[in-house]
Amino acid sequence: MTKLCCEVLSALAGKTLVTAESCTGGGIGAALTGISGSSKVYKGGIISYTNWVKQHLLGVDEALLNDVGAVSAPVAEAMARGAREALQADVAVSVTGLAGPDGDEFGNPVGTVYIGYCDEKRNFSRKFLFDGSRQEVRSAAIKEALKLVLEQNS
Predict the structure, then answer these.
(1) Tens of pLDDT along 49-94?
(2) Rounded distance, CA 80 to CA 55, Å?
């Protein structure tokens, strides 16, 4: 994980990165801030574990949360966009998903994770279905979020 974080920070030299994390609970931020000098790139993040935080701090539309649920592509994209705007950064990555023990009322099983990305030109998300324990799902989501940022900035 350290190598991946260093690669992300290097790829974003001269830019700023922020995070909006739900099921990962700040794990992306923790991984990045474990690297000396990360504050030159990583500004911070919003842990949006509840819909209230998604709505009030990230600007995710309440109707969207009610209609498609927090674990969805449109919400992941809105979270990334909202974090980028709220924290005034060049790049944002978001994670929303189900690490367990249960699925949600929208039919998403445990392990479903959407990772959103936003910069000045793009705002999109990717869906993942991870296997394993709660911690394994969270770790896989953190790794894939970092890989997505690296891919978009290499």
Answers:
(1) 999 999 999 999 999 999 999 999 999 999 999 999 999 999 999 9
(2) 12
Residues facing residue 115 across a β-bridge: 95, 126
Distance (Å, rounded) from C-alpha 10 to C-alpha 26?
21
The two three-digit tokens of residue 74, written as one number? 């449109």
How do strand 17-21 and strand 42-47 relate by DSSP bridges?
A: parallel
Q: Cα separation of 38 and 101, whole Å?
A: 33
148's enclosing H/E stretch is helix 134-152
Which pLDDT score is estimated for 39?
Answer: 97
Q: Which residues contact 107 (CB under 8 A, 6 or more apart)?
A: none
CA distance 153 to 134: 29
pLDDT at 28: 98
Give the helix ranges, DSSP H, for 12-106. Answer: 27-33, 51-58, 62-68, 73-86
User: Residues 43, 47, 52, CA angle at the centre, nearest 5°?
Assistant: 130
User: In angstroms, rounded to a whole number, what is the distance separating the alpha carbons of residues 146 and 46?
Assistant: 16
State residue 13's pLDDT score. Answer: 97
Single-letter amino acid code for the residue at 99: A
